[in-house]
Write a structure and sequence with these properties.
The chain is α/β, with parallel strands linked by helices. Helix content is 41%, strand content 20%. The protein has two domains: 34 residues; 198 residues, Rossmann fold (3-Layer(aba) Sandwich), CATH 3.40.50.150. The chain is globular. The relative contact order is 0.12.
Length: 256
């Protein structure tokens, strides 16, 4: 007998305790199940693709590199025509480390290597195996020892933590199929005080040409909101003389 309780009270007490123990055990098992289930979910399953197939052309192993040189490195492309002004606006410090995310054919690879100098580091990052092979060849032929070519995935830039001072994303943010995950990997790769520059296309219905409206999924405000939500703060928008369809945004890494 439990002191102070009669037989009926003891029976009621034991019944309550039994239900309480069962409830606690069930709760513990439920939490364990949820944790295990979450661990089994891949990162990509937690975020749906914002534009499936956006990188299909670049993932093609038979991609014609000459065709893309003709598209990327031509005066009619604003980021090619204004490359010297863009480079000046970046204010790259000798000895610093930067990543060209979506380096493509390597338009900025040599200028970046010259800007950081022999003591600096340039990560030329691209998702395309064909582009990666060409970037390595181009770096070797130009004897750019400070360039490291990296093949990224659709949801990560594949760079070491705290490895870069500047992330340069030129006409490629709209190709981020999993922007939240890719931005998280960039945030991790940036050193404290690091910057991220995003150059992309203005997308204004009724103003932008039809190709842009179909190719670029959202406008500057939407992209800025996504980037802010990923741990960055918009510091300024830079005016580049010669830009008619592009914009230039500078973001800082927000500290936790």
């Amino acid at each position: 007998m439990i002191a102070g309780l009669d037989g009926s009270s003891v029976f009621h007490y034991l019944a309550v305790m039994k239900r309480l123990i069962s409830t606690i055990a069930f709760s513990v098992l439920s939490v364990a199940f949820i944790v295990c289930a979450q661990e089994d979910v891949s990162p990509k399953a937690k975020q749906e693709s914002v534009k499936p197939g956006i990188n299909k052309n670049f993932l093609d192993p038979n991609l014609d590199i000459k065709q893309w040189f003709g598209r990327f490195e031509v005066e009619s492309r604003e980021v090619y025509h204004c490359r010297d002004k863009i480079l000046a606006a970046l204010g790259i410090v000798p000895g610093s480390a930067l990543a060209d995310i979506g380096a493509g054919t390597g338009l900025y690879m040599k200028p970046f290597a010259e800007a950081v100098g022999k003591d600096g580091q340039v990560f030329a990052v691209d998702i395309s195996e064909v582009f990666v092979k060409n970037l390595k060849k181009r770096a070797q032929e130009s004897e750019l020892s400070q360039v490291k070519v990296v093949q990224c995935s659709e949801d990560s830039v594949k760079l070491p933590a705290n490895s870069i001072d500047l992330a340069f994303i030129c006409d490629t943010y709209h190709h981020f199929e999993y922007p939240a995950l890719t931005l998280a990997s960039i945030h991790k790769a940036l050193k404290p005080g690091g910057r991220m520059v995003v150059i992309d296309f203005e997308r204004i219905p009724g103003v932008s040409r039809e190709w842009l409206l179909g190719h670029v999924r959202a406008g500057k405000d939407v992209f800025t909101s996504e980037i802010n939500a990923a741990g960055f703060e918009l510091e300024k928008e830079v005016t580049i003389d010669g830009f008619k369809e592009n914009y230039f945004l500078v973001f800082g890494k927000r500290q936790a």
